[in-house]
Amino acid sequence: MKLNITIDGKTYEVDVEVAEADHAGLPPAYPIGSARLAGSVVGSPAPAAAPSTAPVANEAKVCRSPVSGIVVKLIAQPGQSLQVGDSLMVLEAMKMETNITAPVAGKVAAIKVKAGDSVQADEVVVEFE
Fold first, then answer.
1. How far is Cα 30 from Cα 38, in angstroms, rounded to an integer?
2. Alpha carbons 46 and 52: distance in angstroms, whole number
3. CA dihedral of 33, 38, 44, 48, whole degrees rounded to 10
4. Is 43 helix (H, G, I), strand (E, B) or coil?
């Protein structure tokens, strides 16, 4: 398969070969720059429940980080009303910036991180009212 890749304004044509056609054993991929609600990936197994005394978040009202990284910039503010797809923050992971967007429409109740914080994949970063 041939692909065109643009780097620093210069386009390169590259040949790409699929090494293995069976992708059944691979984990599901997430679209770049989108946050997901926990349990929203079709066909993914539910995580094993670990005993915890921490309060359980209402999964319909939180945004979790899709990747592990460092918070570069906060865009949303507590109290701000957002629509699905509005920017919440920018994370840097492996020298690439990822724009984290709102998975649901609503008012921001709390932002659980600040610029410079390290976050893990699936960590709650924003709560909605």
1. 12
2. 17
3. 130
4. coil
Phi, psi of 60 (to 5 degrees): -75, -10
The count of C-alpha atoms lying within 13 angstroms of the C-alpha of 115, restricted to the half-sphere facing its C-beta, is 7
Q: Is the dihedral of CA 50, 42, 29, 82 positive or negative?
A: negative
Q: What's the pTM value of the predicted model, to 2 decimals?
A: 0.56
Tell me how far apart the alpha carbons of residues 7 and 124 are, in angstroms, rounded to a whole number.
33
pLDDT tens series, the chain, 129 aa: 777 888 888 888 888 776 655 555 555 544 445 455 544 444 445 555 554 444 556 787 899 999 999 999 999 999 999 999 999 999 998 889 989 999 889 999 999 999 999 999 999 999 998
Cite the beta strand spans of 16-123 per DSSP E. 62-64, 69-74, 81-82, 87-93, 96-101, 106-111, 118-119
Q: In whole angstroms, what is the distance from residue 67 CA to residue 33 CA?
A: 9
